[in-house]
Amino acid sequence: MRVPRPWAMPSGRLTLPGRGLALATAVLAVTAGCSAPAPAPVKPKSAKATATMCGTTRTAANVPVNIQVKRGQVSCRTALKVERAYAAAIIAGKAPGSGGGGPVLVNGWTCEGFTTPVVLQTGQASKCVRGGNEILAILPAPA
User: Fold this and answer.
1) Using alpha carbons only, what angle is made at residue 89 by residues 85 and 93, rounded to the nearest 5 degrees?
2) pLDDT (tens digit per residue) in 19-68
3) Nearest-angstrom CA–CA distance, 3 and 130
4) Which residue ranges make up each domain of the chain?
């Protein structure tokens, strides 16, 4: 695995390209010697980005995905429960079609996997919807 080299800025600061705020936060926490409990759900401050990050679970193919509430008022506990139930339904063969991409009714939610081109373009593996609520399963960014 190739480790990115730090870049020297004109100000003398070192940065790692493409790592952003997450890296800065991690470095700050390590250098401060902090140890914190698991983070609470985060609501982005941007008016356009209204998703709530809820945590991680795994798909039916055992691939880790980040779960987020994209629209509506859904607790993270419910979002994770629905996504886990969706994976279990696919494993149990309850999804129509080959590969389990077709819509599946799970606890009152309609869940569906995205096609490979959509997954490659957006990172979104699946979504579950009920009324105006939407939950997304998103592949983590490559390291």
Assistant:
1) 170
2) 443 333 333 232 233 333 444 444 444 445 578 999 999 999 999 999 99
3) 42
4) 1-36, 52-138
